[in-house]
Amino acid sequence: MRFIPPRLLLIIVYILYLDESGTTPQASNFVLAGLAVFEREIFWLSQELDNLQHQYFPQSTEPILFHAHALHVRDGDPVEPPWDQIDRTKRLEIKNRIFEILRNRRAILFACAIDKKLCEARHEDFYERAFEDLASRFDMFMSRVNRQAVSQGLEEQRGLIVLAESSYQKILVLVSRRLRQQGTRWGTLHNVSDVPLFAPAKDTRLLQYADFCSNAVFGRYQSKLTGDFDMIAAKFDQEGGVLHGLSHLTTDPLCSCIACFSRRGRQPPLSQP
Description:
There is one protein chain. The chain is α/β, with parallel strands linked by helices. The chain has a single domain (10-266), classed as Nucleotidyltransferase, domain 5 (2-Layer Sandwich), CATH 3.30.420.10. The protein has helices at 6-9, 42-56, 68-72, 88-104, 116-122, 126-151, 169-182, 205-223, 227-232, 258-266; strands at residues 12-21, 29-38, 107-115, 158-164, 197-199, 238-239, 242-243, 246-249. The N and C termini lie far apart (58 Å).
């Protein structure tokens, strides 16, 4: 965690790691997703991937980048090294073990899936819209964390957002400053550090987990592949049976995914004429 300034570590209790899927023009959906982790859990989650690397690549002395796309490649198709050293059965075995880690460890998932046509119709940038959505949801989560802390006589804490480096980095810094100054469309951010941090995924195991989260959500909404998504669906932030951590922005008013179904369940019934 050397990329986080020491002064921030004094007040940070949860860190939200995010990565994206679906930035290519061919993708009709975009996903920004990841996991919020209690800072003491970071070491243990990182160690889990280190242990996987040691088991499957015992001769490797440098950290291997765990990347969801590389583990999905079919036999006969080009596989990036070092994943070409093991067959597809083992690659899928590793993928499933990573999702099991996410299921069993103390991590809270967040994701925003967007139908790009919706953003085009509203003249919005899909990445900016997803970041605003998740910043608001993470802030709401931190508000609940702080209410519990205050009730126990503890200090309030703030959350920090860390994203994988991308071409959107400069834009997101400006968007983040705007959100801090003007608030989101849902209100002011109270519990999230004003500037997101960026890091290479290869240097941060937690961003590698975020890649698997975004890939699973993207597979669900882009291609209706539910296997990976179903393994982690119960880990999205929720309280009292209400799903907060997953949002789906779509042009389909009848979408029956768990995010849309949960939102419709919270809406008051239409008044009868």
